[in-house]
Amino acid sequence: MNINKVAESRVPENLNDVSFGNVFTDHIFICNYKDGKWGEGQIIPSGSVSFPPTIMAIHYGQACFEGMKAYKNDTDDVYLFRPDRNAERINASATRLAMPTFPEDEFMEALHTLVDLDRAWVPNKLGTSLYIRPVLFASESMLLARVSNEYTFCIICTVANNYYSKPLNVKIAQKYSRAAKGGVGFAKAAGNYGASFYPTQLAKEEGFDQVIWTDSVHHEFIEESGTMNVFIRINDTLITPPISERILNGVTRDSLIQIAKHKGWNVIEKRVSIHDLYEAHKDGSLKEVFGCGTAVVVNNFVNIGYPQETLALPDLPDEEKWGQIMKKELLNIQSGRADDPFGWRQMVEHKTMEV
Ligand SMILES: *Cc1c(COP(=O)(O)O)cnc(C)c1O
């Protein structure tokens, strides 16, 4: 791997005041695919690459990405959380979009080297992190509608502060769908996001924050919410829809299932219909509904817009919300503040000289 360091770091004095998503760390990792193979990966100053508007990703949508985080504890150790899952998943997405896979060992090496080099950018307050965005896209300059012959894989990092995740009002999708049978719902395809913005915008105009996606045929079974996996707690049973070609296999979802089992809680993977949800609300057994994903970890819902009425969820204190209890535990594991009985964390070793 080629490393071209910046002359001077731009790391802000107060990382806690940095807004999410548009301040990037000093470096990015980049690797190009051409003539049927990946070239040598490089770490270069961020902001030093540009692409023409003719690259195929923009026209035909061959683009997928990942979202993951690096955390720092009180003694400035930096950790990655289950990065092997992201290395695997970007390749599952790539395959579905007819793109070449990126070797998992090279993904891991690039990730560790980049985060090591930019470790000064990882904030260390509980709940803060460095958000890491691997992205793979068709970069051939070509307007002929066919599979691209050239690709670019990048890893970009931005500071993620403890942005307060406010409890959400969500609306059950009755018309639009995020994913269809035989489609690309399981892939972290850029186009899935593009397609979800309009229905979400309409829900916002009606006063909701987000959409609960239902199956595309009957709009009957709950699938995901926004870009999060969903959990439903009925009495003392936690239920989450099983992974399918329409439901993204979230790392947070899987981690919460394991944490819940480890605590001895009853957790099952099965389909839940909006009718089940309505009945459980009516008889008082519906305790919690929450979404989960890397960005927010866990976000409890307050109101669910059911076709005819709005279902208000019980106003439990955070100490009684299973979602919030698990969120705390997961954050403590991720950031190196608690034991990691699952072996999920990877420490980022000091190898490259920082800037
Ligand atoms: C990224 C994503 C998730 C969450 O996955 P994590 O691995 O937990 O971050 C859930 N649903 C969709 C549609 C996503 O794109």
What labels would you give this structure?
355 residues; alpha+beta; 28% strand; globular; binds pyridoxal-5'-phosphate
Helix content: 10-25%
> How would a textbook summarize the main sheet?
10 strands, mixed
Tally of helical segments: 7
What structural category do the secondary elements indicate? alpha+beta
Q: Report the β-strand fraction as a percent range.
A: 25-35%
Per the principal axes of the C-alpha atoms, what is the gross shape? globular
Order of helices and strands: EEEEHEEEHHEEEHEEEEHEHEEEHE
- Average the pLDDT over all residues and give the rounded result: 96
**Low confidence ranges:** none
Which kinds of small molecule does this entry bind, naming each only once?
pyridoxal-5'-phosphate
Radius of gyration: 21 Å
> How many strand segments?
19
N- to C-terminal separation?
Answer: 17 Å
